Amino acid sequence: MNLQEEIKSIIDDKEMTYDEKRKKLLKFMAPHEVRAMLPEPLEVVRLKETLKPKTHNMRILRLSVHSEIFESILKGGHVECRDYSEYFKSRCTYEEGGVRYLVPFDAITFYVGRGARAKWATVALKDIVFDNGLLYFHMGEVIKTNLG
User: Fold this and answer.
1) Quick one: 144 exposed, middle or buried, by C-beta within 10 A (0-12, 13-18, 19+)?
2) Do 80 and 111 belong together in one domain?
3) Torsion angle of the four alpha carbons 66, 67, 70, 72, in this order, in degrees rounded to the nearest 10
4) Burial 77-97 (b: 16+ CB within 10 A, else e)
5) Is the pTM of this model over 0.85?
6) pLDDT at residue 55, as a whole number
7) Is residue 55 part of a domain?
8) What is the mean pLDDT of the chain?
9) Residues 6+ away with beta carbon under 8 Å from 40
């Protein structure tokens, strides 16, 4: 039996657990190759999802706010409003084919202060509305926080 056939027989074996298959495959392959060939069982994926909030691969807008507004954001239901200045035009929109579009942000991270000790909260973004030269950010639930 050649190496490819042996790897296939390990993967197809119904009586071996995921961990047993993984240990055997690690003898022949690098860890990243094993992960690619042997997907994790659904229970492991669900456990990982509950352990840490998803913020990777998200488009996150970062804004600094005063502490009173930050407390309001943590309570929920806050709508942040910003002037549609050249600064926000460059951060929140892009131009394609002569038409300007809003960047589809997934969340906003609000900061109070600067540096390593700054408080911050990442909040899901429900909607961005442009009206009369103002940008309104409608927020959902708090995803992650660091309260100092």
Assistant:
1) middle
2) yes
3) -110
4) ebebeeeeeeeeeebbeeeee
5) no
6) 59
7) no
8) 81
9) 18
